[in-house]
Automatic annotation (TrEMBL):
<dbReference type="InterPro" id="IPR020904">
    <property type="entry name" value="Sc_DH/Rdtase_CS"/>
</dbReference>
<comment type="similarity">
    <text>Belongs to the short-chain dehydrogenases/reductases (SDR) family.</text>
</comment>
<dbReference type="GO" id="GO:0016616">
    <property type="term" value="F:oxidoreductase activity, acting on the CH-OH group of donors, NAD or NADP as acceptor"/>
</dbReference>
<dbReference type="Pfam" id="PF00106">
    <property type="entry name" value="adh_short"/>
</dbReference>
<dbReference type="InterPro" id="IPR036291">
    <property type="entry name" value="NAD(P)-bd_dom_sf"/>
</dbReference>
<keyword id="KW-0560">Oxidoreductase</keyword>
<dbReference type="InterPro" id="IPR002347">
    <property type="entry name" value="SDR_fam"/>
</dbReference>
<protein>
    <submittedName>
        <fullName>SDR family NAD(P)-dependent oxidoreductase</fullName>
    </submittedName>
</protein>
Length: 259
């Protein structure tokens, strides 16, 4: 069992990495607030883990303010995982749609900023109570290496990376650590399916004949970062499957020692 005061808010909790982060913290006895738009999924996760569900669209300032107020009223928080996000499309800069770019900026960048700004006073109160608070932003290796067809997703995740660094500078002197995790190829149920507009056959291809990361692999590293001593700030964690040696190199087939 962890310290009784630990309470974490996880956005994008209704599927994939976020849901596994909720499970990981709940298994350690942390209080968890699970935030996403799909009420039915949050209710199922709440029944399974004991997390408190809050239905909230992170791109809607009023909903985010209401979410933060509810977190404050129900026990506050000492930790935040900004995980809500996603990609739309793989079209070129020339041919992609501004609507898709706007969606990606709204959720991956502006949503992250809105949630962080709304919860900072709550986290500060948590830090006064317990001595510390922590923020983890889930970006992507797409926020560090550009690739053809990455367009709006690259741009949004590069921006989320920049926002994380700015925040760390701005919070200097406070007992609030600001961390980033940049995952590579993770096989989650919905991420690529949504990106490829529901084309299941195309969505299966990136994961064919390769052992990718699972949502549980990423969640374990996220949860582990929060369990480090509070003076330890893992500024940037890059996590890829062994079979992916860079954003451009995925080894398909079995991994075998040479020689
Ligand atoms: N899968 C990968 O290969 C991969 C790699 C690197 C980084 N990432 C990043 O990891 C994070 C999680 O991805 P995932 O693979 O777990 O994908 P996912 O299963 O599609 O999860 C995305 C989550 O974000 C939530 N969300 C989306 N828009 C939202 C909004 N406006 N307000 C509130 N919640 C919103 C979704 O819930 P609702 O629809 O219920 O709101 C869902 O719970 C994302 O930031 C993604 O960019 C993924």
């Amino acid at each position: 069992m962890e310290r009784a005061a630990d309470r974490v808010v996880v956005t994008g909790a209704s599927s994939g990495i976020g849901a596994e982060v909720v499970r990981g913290f709940a298994a350690l006895g942390w209080e968890v607030v699970a935030v996403a738009r799909r009420e039915d999924r949050l209710a199922a996760l709440a029944a399974e883990t004991g997390a408190m569900p809050i239905v909230c669209d992170v791109t809607d300032e009023e909903q985010v303010a209401a979410m933060a107020a509810r977190v404050a009223e129900t026990g506050g928080a000492t930790a935040l995982v900004n995980n809500a996000g996603g990609a739309l499309g793989t079209d070129s800069v020339e041919t992609s749609s501004n609507d898709e770019w706007r969606w990606m900026f709204e959720v991956n960048v502006i949503g992250l900023r809105t949630v962080t700004a709304a919860l900072l006073p709550v986290l500060r109160a948590g830090a006064r109570r317990t001595g510390w608070a922590s923020i983890m932003n889930v970006t992507s290796t797409a926020g560090h290496d550009a690739y053809a067809g990455g367009g709006g997703y690259n741009a949004a995740k590069f921006a989320a990376h920049a926002v994380t660094d700015v925040l760390r500078l701005e919070l200097a002197g406070e007992p609030i650590r600001v961390m980033e995790i940049a995952p590579g190829l993770v096989h989650t149920e919905e991420f690529t399916l949504k990106r490829l507009r529901g084309d299941a056959e195309a969505a299966a291809k990136p994961y064919a004949d390769v052992l990718p990361l699972t949502a549980g692999d990423v969640a374990a590293v996220i949860v582990g970062a929060f369990r480090q001593p509070p003076n330890v700030n893992q500024d940037l964690i890059v996590i890829r499957p062994v079979a992916q040696s860079s954003v451009f190199h995925v080894h398909r087939g079995p991994l075998e020692p040479r020689g």
